[in-house]
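Aim 2 progress. For Transport permease protein, the working sequence is reproduced below.
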Amino acid sequence: MNPRITLATAARILRQLRTDHRTIAMMLVVPCVLIGLLAWIFDGTPVFDRIGAALLGVFPFVVMFIVTSVATLRERTSGTLERLLTTPLGKGDFMLGYALAFGAMAVVQALAATGFAVWVCDLDIAGPAWLLVVVAVLDALLGTALGLLVSGFASTEFQAVQFMPALVLPQFLLCGLLVARESLPSVLSAISDVLPLSYAVDAMRTIATDPEPLGEVASDIGIIAGAIVLALALGSLTLRRRTP
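Predicted structure tokens for this construct:
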């Protein structure tokens, strides 16, 4: 990989995003709207305080998965990727460039969603808000990395979205958001232990309830970061020049 080419790729993607107002709205506005809707639904109850922090990790993960998988596939089906890979641009440069570009958007998304949840929706958290932002950014990057990975197996944008029930929904159901992971049947609990979103939800809940959570969530952060690196590495191996 060439750092100069990687950064140039990230800059190109950011320039494209700047003119794509719908995608920007999808990444920045939708998580805030969903969080606000849940806060409104559970107004006057302790439910939002119990699940709100976890959702700050789940929503960016889902949104970035959809946006990234569709955007990457669009570059391949339009022939842009094939033309780019005839230049010195390597697959690793392309994957990392996408990760950097959407990572920058993830920072803005996490700041917006966390600020909205804490200061507008009055989400009660015991830990530092900056750590909540860090985990939210990692969750968004995880969605980005998995979106890049699955885009290599899809032939159309519709097929890319179809991967959501296969990769996203099982993690949503088993991450501990709906049922505590320790209460799951043994087989499902074992599956939950290898799903990265489970550790994101664990970290978010710890931050919400522990005034000094850094020591406890460090391992969760490490696992999420490792999953991001693994997904990007696998994505660079499976990335095709064009869709047959």
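The chain has eleven helices and no strands. This observation will guide construct design in the next reporting period.
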